[in-house]
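Why this split exists: single-chain examples teach little about how molecules sit against one another. For that reason, every record in the complexes split bundles all components of an assembly together and asks for one structure covering all of them. Below is a record exactly as it appears in the raw files.
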Amino acid sequence: MNVVEAVAALLSDPGLRATFRDDRAAWIKAVGVDADEAPTLQALDLEELETQAGLLIDKRAGEVAELIPRTRAGLGSRFEPLFADYAAGAPWPRGHLRHLRDATRFLRFLQARAPAAVSGVDQALLRSQLAWRQGRRLSFGLSHHRDTGPLSGLVLVLATRRGKLRLTLPLPFPASLGRRSW
Amino acid sequence: MSDFAARVEALPLLGVGLGYRRPLRRLFRDPTAPLECIEVVAEHFFGARAPKRPRLFGERPVMVHSLDASLGTPGPLDEAYLEQVATVAEGLGAVLVSDHLAVTRTGQVELGHLNPVPPLAKYVGPIAAKIRAIQERTGLPFLLENITTHLRLKGDLPFAEFYNRICAEADCGMLLDVTNLFVNCRNFERDPLAALEQLELSRVVQLHIVGYTERDGRLYDSHRAEIQEPLYAFTEQVLQRAPVRAIVVERDGHYPRDAVLFEQLTRLRQLFALAVRP
């Protein structure tokens, strides 16, 4: 392993950082970094390492938040801890569509943890953007409201990269169904 | 004259511009907007379709800025990635291309954002070779940008020498992010002007600027704030020392009212006019 790979591994893995913090010399020896590169690892400032690692998560969360503004607003102060939980178990997707894919996966994660906050409009727009970037023209998402009086019903969202069409069909959904999105 | 110097000499004065982002599209349509050039993020135009120059760009010169070449990662340049950048540059009729002196990924790990490269002499040659390959494939001048970092990596070269030597060996230019340099210096208690003067300023062709945010006494290059007074002052110092051809405001969120953005662009144009234009 070269020093760039070693630093990248440390930045992306809190467990490795803990091992490094406990016994730096043993960690450096174990990963087998070249002798001329080892001084870079020996000189690493642990606080700076944590700050940079935290910043990467913040940047990632910020990119996702921009793509799902309604869901972000719905989560309020729960967004950051939920995103941290999600990120701990999900490495960054690779490639130029990674933000769109990350946001899509985060919404999927939220379906289990905070389904009421997931915006069908965000989902539809994300699908539309992904479809566009992959060379397809249209995509759509469906969601239905919960128990919000006269607006309760099936909400259909058709999104293209140029905008969205949102139709509400009043239907008497039982409140127990909650809010779902496809 | 080096190839790079000849290429840059052929560049017109590009002026002051803005990074193209979809939420800011209306500004690019506005004929009164003080926008002289446009920078696009290459990855925003990657995809299944051949990139076409949007009509709203008009006749303004376009610079293509990529984010993920990960030039600091040891090993060969990602040829597929380079091909996509070149396709975007050709499709948009770009006048130059740029990316960062950074690591965004390795074979094992996707970091998703810009991280520092250890300033080791052994990395100068490989990074320079990748830049030369980009210049050859695109046929355009390449500018290497400095990043902001909260992690200092020690190597056998001071950072400025590392940056200078790569640009000299690659015969490329510098995209000096004044905010990044300023933020790094403030966070690590260095004098921004002293750090500036260690750079080979004759290679600085373009500037990036945007306001920083502050949290717990530390500055962050969040791309979400208005340009602060110390940054204007620092930019003025840079413009007096470097043959800058373009200044680009890089805004990625918390977009202000149009008038606020126009005011910042106009102020930069005034600084630019005083320092650079005859």
